Amino acid sequence: MDLASLAGARVVDLSLTVSERLPGTWPGHMTYAHHNWNWFAEVEGPTGKTRSTAPYQTNFVVMDEHCGTHFDAPTHFVPPPDSGLDLAGPLGDQTGDKVPLEDLMGPAVVIDIRFLAEEGEPGVSPFITPRHVEAWEEENGTLRAGEVVLFRTGWDRYYVEGEEGERYMHGSLVTGETPGWPAPAPETAIYLHERGVKTIGIDAPSIGSAHDAVPVHQEGLSRGMRYVEILTNLGELPVRGAYFIFMPVKIAESSGGPGRAMALLLE
After folding, report:
1. Using 50, 70 and 90 to split pLDDT, how confident is the model at 1?
2. Stretch(es) of the chain classified as CATH 3.50.30.50
3. Quick one: pLDDT at residue 8?
4. pLDDT at residue 93 above 60?
5. Which class would CATH give 3-18+66-265?
């Protein structure tokens, strides 16, 4: 390994900020909260006096495992083998802390499907089909085993505060008034798995569609695939040539979890 080249790599942050004012929580899941626990001194704040036992600051966080930039471990949709449930199997024991880090990194491939972003119907996602991936391969070469496929939908532009941010998830999942984000069809996950792709990422709320998120999760995660969701800045990466890394918080018995996604570019 050329450590000098690695030290000179440009780091592209592919993670979105988590905030109580931003739409990073799946509707119906635990709402994200971030509050102060101890501050440098007792002062009057918006909720009263701060607690101060010593001159330092620390805060506490309450969040769903699938809030903000995060990954799905198999057990997110695969029940444990002794549960007696449908689709149960050994991968149902592979919690987030047991997923090897090397599975969450690799040469990045960026597939631009922004043209699909306005083709959805209210409450319905347009599907990214195997044909879309094949068209990309015809132009850029066949996908290689171990590559990380990143779908650039452009949906991260709706990850903002206020009314415009309602389009990110709430408009399609709750009110059904706005179209869903582009999402891989179940057969697309199978196609990528057959190509030797283990990890898929997307700059949208989920690999699953707004109208039926379950099948693509079941098809991919039951095959040992890893999904990284709620990414951003994919437009800063070349079609090929970047190295993708996702580093999740190591949470025991988790179904996945939040973390920091990045790409290294040797320039």
Report:
1. low
2. 3-18+66-265
3. 81
4. yes
5. alpha beta
